[in-house]
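Researcher: For the annotation table, I need structure tokens for PD-(D/E)XK nuclease family transposase. Please keep the output clean. Sequence:
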Amino acid sequence: MKIETKYDIASSVNIGAEYDKGVKKLFKSKEIIVPIMEMVIPEFEGCSQEEILNCLDLASITSDEVVSDAPVSETDEYRIRGEDAELSGGSDKLIRFDSKFRIRNPKLSEENVLVNLHIDLEGQKSYTPKNPTYPIIKRGLYYVARDLSSQLGVVTGKTNYADLEKCYSIWICLEDVPVRLRNTMTEYRIRKEDVLGETDEPEEDYDLMSVIVIRMGEKSEERGIFDYLNQVFVGNIEEIETYSHIEWEDEFKEDVAMTMTGFSDVLVRRGREEGRKEGREEGRIEGREIGQEETTVKFIWSLHEMKCTDEMISEAVKRPVDYVQDILKKDAPQ
């Protein structure tokens, strides 16, 4: 895996507002999105990661603007471009995509015919946004509709509906997912239903918009999209490598330890919620402290298993070295 992608993973999980910027940058890295394409997009069913990588439009991979405090390397051309990351047409609302790129459709493309898929990949902290409250699926449908309409006239300046290519909007929702919906993935798309008689129009003429909502939940024991994304969100390099199939340099682990907190703002909140539940029985203050402490201990052991030094772990968790060493003398949490 490219060194700049590793830095993106590290910087993507900083505490606070930078976390959102970092994850947007992370989702522009081809090394990270290829496994997502493999596990989520039906057109790539049966394709290897190398084949998917070869489908990426190389002309669309170029430099991108800085979206976090992390330094931009001179090899930023390996990130998916962001030049079309904003859409504004006439009186339409300006929208910004987290990660937007093109990738060849292997099902429809031939030797002399190129048909692209247009992918919008969104990292969404809350499944039920507030102020205002709205269903994520409606926002996804709006994004994918705008993406489709933006294709007309882009290349030739003329309106040719035959040139329209399929658009995907993929939403990865991390928090506030109802229990019954956790660890679920749903695709919303246009399908044909004959009302009177039977027709045989080609599916590619109407299957032009698809919204995929991935609702995260508790840690998944099964390998797949939920486990992969959880490993990305907690910064588990060794597990990410088992999905991305790309070699990582050992020296990058120091950068990871210094900056990665594994979406810690979210994890700390989860720990606090668990602590509050216990606190209803044993006292709210004590419960919150237990939740925070358990989160810190688990993160320390995660970094230790990545072969990080005690000093590196101390810097990452903002605790003294002797505190880290005391934790590691005990049994690892289950």
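Researcher: And a one-line annotation?
Model: Residues 3-244 form one domain.
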